[in-house]
Structures are given as structure tokens and as C-alpha cells.
Amino acid sequence: xxxxxxxxxxxxxxxxxxxxxxxxxxxxxxxxxxxxxxxxxxxxxxxxxxxxxxxxxxxxxxxxxxxxxxxxxxxxxxxxxxxxxxxxxxxxxxxxxxxxxxxxxxxxxxxxxxxxxxxxxxxxxxxxxxxxxxxxxxxxxxxxxxxxxxxxxxxxxxxxxxxxxxxxxxxxxxxxxxxxxxxxxxxxxxxxxxxxxxxxxxxxxx
Length: 206
Ligand SMILES: Nc1ncnc2c1ncn2[C@@H]1O[C@H](COP(=O)(O)OP(=O)(O)OP(=O)(O)O)[C@@H](O)[C@H]1O
Known about the structure:
5-stranded parallel β-sheet, ABC_SmlMolc_Importer, transport, Rossmann fold, globular, 4-stranded antiparallel β-sheet, binds adenosine-5'-triphosphate, nucleotide-binding, 2 domains, alpha/beta
């Protein structure tokens, strides 16, 4: 299993009831999990806990054989090697697409940058700045940057919510193909059951 969560416990200070209690989850390498559920059910919080952005969760989290947290340890976010794709793309506006992709890499590598540009169908657009790209291209550039860091797990929070509906079907297909080619273990949050139907191998209702 690429991801193992055992007996997760989590509650925000302001809450009476825990958001997670005795929660378990397993995901095999290369599989795509869709997380669905009503507003406020804890979807984004689950991603934040896995990424190490919430440090008060109980239980065990292991990714790629590494323990992110257990009773004794808590690995900080920067040591977890998690790829996070937000709905607002989070590209650096003052860096070109190539520079954005290079930013995530441990060692700058021209060849790998070119490969990622090709994989995300951005050949020839490497020298552009994010504002010179369409929404779908920005989304793919953000994915290329995230993949450049070779994450052990890819987390996406509502990856399609800022895209025009006309683009969503293409983007779903692109994303699926890219994730499959890279054999990326992926968790994504969505409100849209169609996203889950097209993209996911596994579903989780929170
Ligand atoms: N920093 C915080 N402090 C206290 N409560 C919080 C905090 N962040 C989120 N919450 C609460 O925790 C619950 C889960 O929030 P979360 O953002 O994980 O939900 P979600 O399922 O992603 O919702 P949505 O579908 O609306 O994005 C909500 O009730 C929210 O109000």
C-alpha cells in the first residue's frame, strides 16, 4: 500500500464532536481516490492532515513505507514529499512556466522539464508567464510543477472548480492520462460525482 491511515483522530478546538474518529484508509500505488461528501464533512481537512498542515491529529499515517506520523513522530510538511494541487493553481506569477516547473525539482534538469512540458501538452509554452496561459494550460502547468518534485502522493482539492465547464471534460481526461503515465497515487476532493466517475478507481464518502 502506498498510503495507510490507521485510527485517525482529529477535532478542531472549536468543535464539540471530532471530525475523524477511528478513521482508516488504504490506497495502493498508482490508484486514484475520489473524496466526496457534503460541505463541511472534512474533505479538505483530510488532505491537510495527510500533507502535515494540521499537527494535532492522532493515529498513524504512512506513505510509501515512510511514517508521516504515529504516537511518537510527526514529520513536518516540508519533509513529506507530497504534491498539492490547489484550485487556484498557485503558479508563481513572476516565473515563466519552465521556471515554475524547475522550482519544484530537487535538481534543475532541462530534459525532465521538457518531458513534463510534453506530458502536460505545453510544448513551446515554457517561456510564457502564467497570465499568458488559458485556465486549462495554467492547470496543467501547475500539475507539471507538482510532478517535477516527484511526489510520493498527489493531493488535489477541487481541481476543476475554477475551470470553464467546457474545459472540465478535457481536463479530466488529460489529468487521468498524466496521472496514469506517471503511476501517481492520487487523492482528490470533489463535489462532482462525474469527476469521480471519470477519474477515480476508489471512492470515499465523508
Ligand atoms: N481552522 C479551522 N478551525 C475550526 N474549524 C475549522 C477550521 N477549518 C475548517 N473547520 C471546520 O471543519 C469542518 C470541515 O472543514 P473542511 O474544510 O474540511 O470541509 P470540506 O468537506 O472540505 O467542505 P467544503 O466541501 O465546503 O470545502 C467544517 O465544519 C469547518 O467549518
